[in-house]
From TrEMBL:
Its main location: cytoplasm. Coiled coil: none annotated. It is found in: Cytoplasm. The gene is cheB. Involved in chemotaxis. Part of a chemotaxis signal transduction system that modulates chemotaxis in response to various stimuli. Catalyzes the demethylation of specific methylglutamate residues introduced into the chemoreceptors (methyl-accepting chemotaxis proteins or MCP) by CheR. Also mediates the irreversible deamidation of specific glutamine residues to glutamic acid. GO terms for biological process: chemotaxis. This is Protein-glutamate methylesterase/protein-glutamine glutaminase. The lineage of its organism: Bacteria, Pseudomonadati, Pseudomonadota, Gammaproteobacteria, Lysobacterales. Keywords: Chemotaxis, Cytoplasm, Hydrolase, Phosphoprotein.
């Protein structure tokens, strides 16, 4: 990124959205909107001419598929991209695919009264564009396109488990939809139970859970209130609600919490982690993956103080090293692990945990 201001190119077929995003982003002294384009064909020329640091890109555009444009961009001229997506089922699927193609993050826009809705998200839009400017963007390899389903011949870790009385808790944000997929793809069907929180809008959670389920030998689902937490299963909070773990005799159950946002997030990683520290204690393992901000750092510290192993994703493999870095600075992380090693390390810690 340029030393002065973050240079942003806005790509959206809606003139109203282009104007609103320009006003919102230009209102921050650290951001300069260098141009806007109504479709990817125009955007391609402006990228060459204006050399932006960050692109905001509409997921659904009528004149050219935004995903096809993104895929070509990440192969030929990788740049940090923040997707602007609609809160619809189709928009959710397209956004998750965009993240798998290398987009850093996304902002959802409402279906009605877009101008006012975007203004309500002004702070989030500015923060995500700034974070994207510092994100690690890698060229897209052809083999990294999302698979439709987990191959039955895919190798699984050879580790086995002596007991099932373990609970893995994972938190993530920006870049986390793909990081969680990488971790869950490496987990065997008999892995210990996993509870997760990923910062994601309510309308996207169901599609996200389904996508993870397709990529994992574990059963991945949105958690139901009071549902028993079982080995071989991974649980996500349903849209716009916190997930907590409660103890019910000798077992754990999911508690769905519709309380206020924590650290400006709902679901919040800290809510999950603190419940895990209180109810699973030393039987837990806590992990923070890539993400913006500091949500989860204090909760991970509580997990560590309860006697459980803790780890975070390393900076080199993180899209944004905000949440993991905050946990390290707080002294909450006992290990720093590259993304491709996290699943194996979680399984090793599961076997060695007392």
């Amino acid at each position: 990124m340029n030393a002065s201001r973050c240079r942003v190119l806005i790509v959206d077929d809606s003139a109203v959205v282009r104007q609103m995003l320009t006003e919102i982003l230009s209102g921050d002294p650290a951001i300069e909107v260098v141009g806007a384009a109504a479709d990817p064909l125009l955007a391609r020329e402006k990228i060459k001419r204006l050399n932006p640091d960050v692109i905001t890109l509409d997921v659904e555009m009528p004149r050219m598929d935004g995903l096809a444009f993104l895929e070509n961009l990440m192969r030929l001229h990788p740049l940090p991209v923040v997707m602007i997506s609609s809160l619809t089922e189709r928009g959710a699927d397209a956004t998750l695919q965009a993240l798998s193609l290398g987009a850093v993050d996304f902002v959802s826009k409402p279906r009605l009264d877009v101008a006012r809705g975007l203004q309500d998200y002004a702070e989030e839009i500015i923060a995500k564009v700034k974070a994207a400017a510092h994100a690690r963007v890698r060229p897209l390899a052809r083999t990294s396109a999302p698979a439709v389903a987990l191959s039955s011949s895919a190798p699984a870790p050879a580790l086995r488990f002596r007991t099932t009385d373990r609970l893995i808790a994972i938190g993530a944000s920006a870049g986390g939809t793909e990081a969680l997929r990488v971790v869950l793809e490496q987990m065997p069907a008999d892995a210990p139970a996993i509870v997760m929180t990923q910062h994601i809008p309510a309308g996207f959670s169901h599609a996200f859970a389904e996508r993870l389920d397709r990529h994992s030998a574990m059963a991945v689902r949105e958690a139901g209130d009071g549902e028993a937490i079982l080995p071989g299963h991974a649980y996500l909070p349903p849209g716009g609600k916190h997930l907590r773990v409660i103890r019910d005799g000798a077992r754990w159950r999911c508690r769905i919490d519709d309380g206020p946002a924590v650290n400006r997030h709902k679901p919040a990683v800290d809510v999950l982690f603190r419940s895990v520290a209180a109810n699973a204690g030393a039987n837990a393992i806590g992990a923070i993956l890539t993400g913006m901000g500091d949500d989860g750092a204090r909760g991970l510290l509580e997990i560590a103080q309860a006697g459980a192993p803790t780890l975070v994703q390393d900076e080199a493999s993180s899209v944004v090293w905000g949440m993991p870095g905050s946990a390290v600075r707080l002294g909450a992380a006992r290990e720093i692990v590259p993304l491709e090693r996290i699943a194996t390390r979680l399984l090793e810690l599961t076997n060695s945990a007392h």
